[in-house]
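Q: Hi! First time asking for a complex rather than a single chain. Here are the components, and I think there are three in total. Is that enough to go on?
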Amino acid sequence: MINFRLNTHSGVPPYLQIVQQVKQALQVGILEPDDQLPTVKEVVAHIAINPNTVAKAYRELESLGLIEGRTGSGTFVKQRPSGPSPKVQELLSDDLEGWVAKAHKAGLDEESIEALLRIALNKYKKG
Amino acid sequence: MGAAIQTKDLGKRYGSFWALENCSITVPEGSVSALVGPNGAGKSTLLKLLTGLSNASSGDSQVLGKAPAQHEEFLADIGYLAQEIPLYKSLNAADHIAMGKHLNKHWEDSFINQRLRELNIPLDRPIGKLSGGQRAQVALNLALAKKPKLLMLDEPVAALDPLARHDFLSSLAQAVADGGLTVVMSSHLLADLERVSDHVIVLASGKTQLCDDIEHVLKEHRLLVGPREHSKTLGDGVNVIHETHSARQSTLLVRLEKSAKVPSHWQKHEPNIEEIILAYMGQAKEGGSR
Amino acid sequence: MNWFVWRQHRKQFIAFGILLALFATLLIPTGINYWHQYQHALTTCAQNPNTPSCSDLTSSLFTSSADGFLRIAVVLGTFGLPILLGLFIGSPLIAKEYEEGTNKLAWTQSVSRRKWLTTKLLWALGFALLYGIALAILVSWWSRTLNAFASNRFVQGHFETQGLMPIAYSLFFTAIGFMTGAWFRKTLLSFAITFGVFVVCMTSFANWIRPQYMTPVTVTSQIGPGAIDTKIPDGAWILKRGDLVNKSGKEVSFDLPNFPAECQKLTQDIRVPNGGHIAKLKVSGIDPVDDCLNRYGFHQVAKYQPSYRYWDFQEIESGIYLGLTAITVAATYWLVLKRDA
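A: Yes, that's all I need. Here is the structure of the assembled complex.
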């Protein structure tokens, strides 16, 4: 069962954070097709958040085709989002860990590593 | 969706002092609305008018389709939690539950008994001996157990510690999740606004500054940063809510109409909801209003 | 709602019940004892009419200091309990709800404010009514001995403790309690005002208002020791006694400046020549001053309410208090229903 976390200072609207966390869970393999998602009530019991927000996130995920409601049973994962399979993600993740180790060895601290990553992302966005 | 609350020019006067003036708001059914504003803004006054505890000096209001009245049909549909969380100090929670059963039409006993047990609140201890957080939970669940369609809460979490606050909001959220409930919750704190509510009403100095869905508010407002010398050149459809200037730079919080065009010398940022609300409260302080 | 009023106020109701029970344990044995003592004295006097005490029982029966304390206790109890009802049932009934804010809790349940108020007031007034009746019966019964031989039930201090009055006072002061509580929304302030109203009512009714319910009976007599008293029937409530009325009917006080010059001179203790007119008066036991005033056409006057008017007065005063209670209750409704919470 997935447990949601909410970061109120991230600037990302709460419902979007839930959508993203479900997507990421699907990417990484924490959630798989036919897994049951927590009910709205269960989510808000755990994190005190407006149930309308959770409902909205689930609606969005449903419109993306990722989840579906099955009457009488609850909400279930339909399919993984398009994108790299967990296998591919694992490979990429290994690569990244290797690079981070290299950067550490070269003497970069955590902030500098993050800065480098951001610059690379921005470059990629512009390009 | 209908409106759970609709007011038109609602006002309340104490002597010559208007605690609330020209308040025209709409609260959608099923929403969780945050009623925010500084102390003395008129939040408690507004809630008391909507529950029928106070009489309006001007204007009118429709709550769940009716004018607030001291009738059993109206009272059965609303729930209210007053600011100081009043309970009978010498009676215990079980007594209050029995009171609720005797004084209410639709009452669900099992729910509140279970909930208080989950929270480890002793039912036989006098209310005066419970902690602030426990009292708040008893009061909230009493209000929920009478199965209202509209729940109005006056600064319910102001005096609670973070854990009690979380439990309170969690109880409230679970009740909303069950459906059929509209909530209006007033607060002078802005933290967690976007997390807990989807609609916001901003009051300041007795006047309504803003009343809208949070999503819509976020879409409509922008933070513009630009050089001071060009601070007066704005496009059409750009309404300045609040401005600050330093020697060289101006920062404007604006509301954009659909057709608005912002000149290119302005950097556009997306403010968060707290920044927007503060801008409206700042505007009220400086004498303007919507 | 009835269940809740009981649950909320049961401590007070029970406390008052205990108080009444304690009062009864004082009154019942002493009441029985008093009656027996009195009956015994009557039989003794019937058998031996010449026993010295029989000529005036009031100076021999129930004269011990214990009896004195008992009488005070009864008066305090019978005056005190109605005002205590006002202070401890009446004042907090509504004021406390405003003070604690629980009115906002009660008025957002599903009972209307009107129903809430009506239930509370019915309980308070109903309790006061029953309490007043119990008190009236208890003290009237206890007082029958004193009424019989002292014939003073019409007098202030006794009128209020018997008959219908404890009922009227219990209702009225309870009502004043909850009305001032609803008005000022503070229990202590309501206490003070209710007690103030109590003091003002008791003194003004006893001294100025009650005497005027019916025109008092006026009697006159010659001036002489005890002369006027023979004209006043038993059990009357004497309002005025001992003033003078002159030949033309004008009432004046029995004071020296009001006497004719000749009589004034006679009040001075001068040596009386033997065999003179004055000496003859003195020999026959007549006060020369009295004789002089009589010659000038002065009479003694007294005003009283006869004892057969006792129940009329009880009914009139109860009626007044009940009317005031009704007005007070109406005011309470307005104060609670029409004003903001």
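A: Chain B touches chain A through 25 residues (CB under 8 Å). Let me know if you'd like any chain examined more closely.
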